[in-house]
């Protein structure tokens, strides 16, 4: 009598049937049977194990195994056998290369970094995702690993210096990034460029390194001489792969913009062009995002903070919108900006320049005599900034140095802003808020774009005034969005945990200082401590 064949029943079959039109064995079921078998199995063997005959089921299983491999649950060996990564003592992670030739693997699942010798690093580049096998300890007692497989190449374009090999048909590029330890060979037939010895170029990698061969590539851009002014910025932009060129689709969309605001965009907006908003920024600011205005109202103040309304020009899902999402933010270098939005928007239509009409979103706050916000209103408006002021100009006015101020009509408005600033600051200090008044530095360049000097960037009362106005507008906006139950990102400064709090108090005790507040000190307790420590 033949033994009855054991029927395999997936305990998660109902869940799979609910989630997929063509359900396949669950991840848990696959892991369970690979554990029982105790050795890697091929796709065909696993298909046979689960008795899958339908083409759709087979394809579903193939995709599931690939997904489990991608997520680090399974490993596919050179014989196409799938095994459990943990059972095979294999580790996935990302490579950090060292300029001396060796490297380390940072495991995806955490834990100690694994050392890779110079020999193992020959076919790997900095940033690659790889699969390794732990082989023991090195001379320094570190866990050492050997390469099993490269899962994902991270390096595609490399910035470096171009050199010809004299008398040979080969040139090479020496990477600017010291963590990329291999020179990139450029074959003669791939030299479709006019790069000269020593120039900085961008190379596209054509083939990665192996144990016996260096990486090969082709020059796709010549940046220029390595001593050219501003070359460091050009190198940084490309080395960090910052998007800095506009696509044809983005450029096509920018052509529809005019430097004058169409009348249809001004409709259904409040006309505030007669209100003397002002922008207050640094001397070298190129774009002006926000403008402020304040006037006495009853027994308190009326504050208006206007920001450029980018949404009036950028449609959701447009090429400009998608490019802005990809960039995420503008990147500021000394004397140069890589903008998130095309210059027609960032430097023109969405920059609140003086004496020109601009579309804005306005936050209007009615603030009482005690600095409490009593009413908040948000609306779309058209404004015309009365002046582009600098922090230094306003600081001199606040210090009663008005001799060289060229806008005397604006003096009462600056005085209003200052009075409100003092009121808001007083209320915030009473609440115990901490003022992190640190000294920043500013790099001054000469005409050749070389560093001339590094000077402290002194914050004055004008800096603090604008910060206080923007803080009030941001808090009011957050409260309004919370009431509307709209998704919102908050910046939260978590307090120290119990261990850190104990260590801090022990240190303070040695300095004859004390932090009040027991187990949960508040901001005012820290503020008092800082005041006593001065």
Overview of the structural elements:
The protein is α+β, with helices and mostly antiparallel strands and 534 residues long. The protein folds into five domains: 13-84, Arc Repressor Mutant, subunit A, CATH 1.10.10; 90-152, Beta Barrel (OB fold (Dihydrolipoamide Acetyltransferase, E2P)); 157-239, OB fold (Dihydrolipoamide Acetyltransferase, E2P) (Beta Barrel), CATH 2.40.50; 252-483, no CATH class; 498-533, no CATH class. The chain has 14 helices and 24 strands. It has helices spanning 13-19, 27-37, 43-49, 55-70, 231-239, 248-254, 263-266, 319-327, 343-349, 391-398, 411-431, 461-483, 498-510, 523-533; strands spanning 41-42, 74-76, 81-84, 90-97, 103-107, 114-116, 129-137, 143-152, 157-164, 170-175, 184-187, 199-207, 216-225, 270-272, 278-281, 290-297, 300-308, 331-333, 336-338, 357-367, 373-384, 387-390, 440-445, 451-457. A five-stranded antiparallel β-sheet has the order 6-5-4-7-8, with no helix packed on it. A five-stranded antiparallel β-sheet has the order 11-10-9-12-13, covered by helices on one side. Strand 20 and strand 21 form a beta hairpin. Helix 11 (411-431) packs across helix 12 (461-483). The radius of gyration is 32 Å and the shape is globular. The protein starts with 12 loop residues before the first helix and ends with a helix. The model is unreliable at 1-5 (pLDDT under 50).
């Amino acid at each position: 009598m033949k033994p009855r064949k054991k029927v395999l029943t997936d305990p998660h079959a109902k869940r799979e049937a609910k989630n997929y039109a063509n359900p396949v064995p669950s991840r848990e079921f696959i892991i369970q049977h690979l554990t029982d078998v105790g050795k890697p199995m091929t796709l065909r063997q696993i298909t046979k194990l689960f008795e899958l005959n339908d083409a759709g089921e087979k394809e579903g299983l193939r995709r599931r195994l690939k997904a489990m491999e991608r997520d680090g649950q399974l490993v596919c060996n050179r014989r196409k056998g799938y095994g459990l990564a943990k059972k095979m003592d294999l580790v996935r992670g990302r490579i950090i290369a060292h300029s001396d030739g060796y490297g380390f693997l940072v495991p995806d699942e955490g834990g100690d970094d694994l050392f890779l010798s110079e020999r193992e690093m020959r076919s790997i580049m900095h940033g690659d995702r790889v699969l390794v096998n732990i082989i023991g300890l090195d001379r320094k007692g570190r866990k050492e690993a050997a390469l099993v497989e490269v899962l994902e190449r991270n390096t595609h374009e490399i910035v470096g210096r171009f050199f010809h090999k004299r008398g040979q048909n080969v040139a090479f590029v020496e990477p600017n990034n010291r963590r990329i330890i291999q020179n990139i060979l450029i074959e003669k037939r791939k030299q479709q460029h006019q790069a000269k010895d020593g120039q900085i170029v961008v190379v596209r990698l054509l083939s990665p390194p192996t144990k016996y061969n260096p990486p090969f590539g082709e020059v796709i851009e010549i940046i220029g001489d390595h001593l050219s002014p501003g070359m460091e910025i050009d190198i940084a932009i490309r080395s960090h792969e910052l998007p800095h060129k506009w696509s044809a689709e983005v450029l096509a969309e920018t052509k529809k913009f005019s430097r004058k605001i169409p009348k249809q965009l001004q409709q259904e907006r409040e006309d505030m062009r007669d209100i003397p908003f002002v922008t207050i920024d640094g001397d070298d600011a190129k774009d002006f995002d926000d403008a402020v205005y304040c006037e006495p109202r009853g027994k308190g103040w009326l504050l208006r903070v206007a920001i450029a309304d980018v949404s009036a020009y950028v449609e959701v899902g447009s090429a400009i919108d998608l490019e802005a999402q990809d960039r995420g933010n503008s990147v500021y270098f000394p004397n140069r900006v890589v903008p998130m939005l095309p210059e027609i928007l960032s430097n023109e239509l969405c920059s609140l320049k003086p004496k020109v009409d601009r579309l804005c979103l306005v936050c209007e706050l009615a603030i009482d005599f005690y600095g409490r916000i009593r009413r908040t209103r948000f609306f779309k408006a058209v404004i015309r900034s009365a002046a582009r002021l600098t922090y230094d100009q306003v600081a001199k006015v606040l210090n009663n140095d008005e001799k060289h101020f060229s806008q005397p009509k604006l003096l009462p408005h600056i005085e209003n802003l200052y009075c409100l600033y003092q009121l808001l600051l007083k209320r915030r200090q009473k609440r115990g808020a901490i003022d992190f008044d640190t000294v920043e530095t500013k790099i001054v360049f000469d005409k050749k774009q070389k560093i001339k000097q590094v000077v402290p960037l002194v914050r004055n009362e004008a800096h603090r005034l604008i910060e206080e106005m923007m803080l009030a507008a941001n808090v009011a906006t957050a409260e309004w969005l919370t009431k509307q139950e709209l998704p919102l990102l908050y910046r939260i400064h978590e307090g120290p945990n119990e261990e850190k709090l104990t260590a801090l108090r022990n240190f303070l005790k040695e300095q004859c200082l004390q932090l009040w507040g027991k187990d949960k000190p508040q901001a005012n307790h820290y503020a008092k401590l800082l005041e006593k420590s001065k």
